[in-house]
Design goal:
This protein is of the alpha+beta class and about 475 residues long. The protein is about 30% helix and about 15% strand.
């Protein structure tokens, strides 16, 4: 079976009643095995009357594409030799998805329904689903139909949302999966481990599942529990690797949003669904995605012992290629309701940039990704900043946090100004206006990033160890 190359992600979902502004969020850090994994970000145009077959460069999956497809935002790999990996986006019907959260099924279930070599994999999921769906619920069904026809190459979690609902779908084996509608008053932190728990097969409004999954489990004696039907227990894993690589990230995210609850970072019983102790802001989601066990002894760049600093895998990594937060505001209140926040480089050190997805373009700086460093490229600009900040973290941390905080405030002001200007605006006029705003936003953030980078490099020249101060008494 092929080795997944994009398999170290962390996902967050926040229901609208759990959010400070009453809207749905889905978010994820897309992580890889190497630090230098350039990503593009642009708008895929709508298509009509097409007659084309999609073939995956990764595993040669071949699928005849529908004739018509919606416009959508896309974040593919810059080098697509191993696959497209479009990962995340919002389409013109204001339906969004993020794919995937790589997970692992246990050997017992895989024995009876193994993964399919040339089935649907992460590289293809967004490409084959997002342009063709009209709701989050429809997204689950659409992907489920693809899995039924072609099988799944990997075990993956997939997030879908629209203004009304959030759905999380876990593909476990070659053909079996479940999905849950995230309650409006709950949030979820998912970290490379099957997380969905009890399934109510009498509640098709809030759960979906693959055909025959109950029979599959029963006939093969796969349910370890005395009572109930817990997907995590039946299909998931609980290993030493999980307790050092996966569960601590869930623990930390829940620690941030439910600080009064004491939990063990290595527990295999952390709940999948949580109600937060306070309403969650977009800045809270950004903080978690950018976190590295901040203010704990496990922080890799903190003051703990070397053993503690290396004990757990953090959420934000040097190999985070693309961190995104998808936000759908109430279309009855604002015209520019769909926003995709994008952070490139290491999220701990770089800002989240808000882009309006009802647009025909993001910005050239996000689609231009040469093989070597060029500060005209947003990807390379933020990668450079990340390296410089981390290289002198104790000296640069405060200035870098001030830089991020100022841009976070600027983003709120900019979105509010756009909301005011777009009252009553519709159709292509709205799309053209938001496209221009995307260019303005990119320019502002790029300019500020270059200024911050220049300040850091200038200060850094005084920090060389190759210096010598003459003793005046010599």
């Amino acid at each position: 079976m092929r080795q997944q190359t994009h398999m170290a992600c962390t996902s967050i979902m926040v229901g609208k009643k759990a959010a400070m502004n009453g809207v749905n969020y889905i978010a994820r850090n897309e992580d890889n095995f190497v630090a230098n994994w350039p990503k593009r970000f642009f708008v895929q145009p709508a298509v009509s009357g097409r007659h084309e077959t999609y073939t995956s460069p990764y595993n040669k999956l071949s699928v005849e594409l529908p004739e018509n497809g919606y416009r959508y935002t896309s974040s593919p790999d810059a080098n697509q030799d191993e696959g497209w990996y479009e990962e995340d986006g919002i389409n013109e019907k204001n339906v969004g998805m993020s794919a995937t959260e790589s997970v692992t099924a246990n050997e017992k279930v895989l024995a009876y329904d193994p993964l399919i070599e040339n089935g649907v994999a992460e590289d293809s999921i967004t490409t084959l689903v997002l342009p063709y769906i009209n709701s989050a619920r429809e997204g689950v069904k659409y992907l489920g139909d693809l899995i039924a026809k072609y099988g799944s190459t990997e075990s993956n979690g997939v997030e879908f949302f629209d203004e009304d609902e959030i759905w999380y779908m876990e593909l476990a084996t070659g053909h079996h999966w479940v999905a849950i509608r995230i309650p409006d008053d709950c949030y979820v932190i998912a970290a490379n481990q099957i997380g969905i728990e009890n399934i109510d097969f009498n509640d098709s409004e809030n759960y979906m599942w693959s055909d025959g999954i109950q029979k599959f489990v029963s006939e093969n004696d796969l349910n370890p529990d005395l009572t109930g039907w817990n997907f995590r227990h039946i299909f998931g894993t609980s290993t030493k690797q999980d307790r050092h690589y996966n569960t601590p990230r869930v623990w930390y995210g829940q620690k941030v949003l439910n600080p009064s609850i004491e939990q063990d970072p290595e527990s295999d019983a952390l709940p999948f669904l949580r109600k937060p102790e306070k309403k969650i802001s977009v800045e809270d989601i950004q903080y978690i995605l950018a976190s590295h066990y901040n203010e704990t002894k496990f922080d890799p760049i903190g003051g703990g012992s070397e053993d503690d600093k290396r004990r757990y895998r953090a959420i934000s990594l040097s190999r985070t290629a693309n961190s995104h937060i998808l936000q759908l505001r109430d279309s009855k209140k604002v015209a520019a309701n769909a926003i995709e926040w994008k952070a490139l480089g290491i999220p701990s050190f770089t800002p989240y940039v808000p882009f309006f997805t009802n647009a025909d373009d993001i910005d050239e700086s996000y689609s231009y990704v040469p093989e070597k460093l060029d500060l005209k490229s947003a990807y390379w600009l933020y990668e450079s900043m990340s390296m410089i900040v981390e290289s002198h973290y104790s000296e640069f941390a405060t200035a870098n946090l001030d830089y991020q905080k100022e841009l976070a405030s600027w983003s709120r002001r900019k979105i509010a100004a756009v909301d005011k200007e777009t009252v009553g605006m519709t159709g292509q006029k709205l799309t053209d206006y938001l496209t221009e705003q995307n260019h303005q936003i990119a320019k502002h953030f790029n300019d500020e990033a270059k200024n911050h980078l220049a300040d850091l490099v200038t200060k850094g020249t005084e920090m060389s160890k190759l210096t010598f101060k003459m003793d005046p008494n010599l």
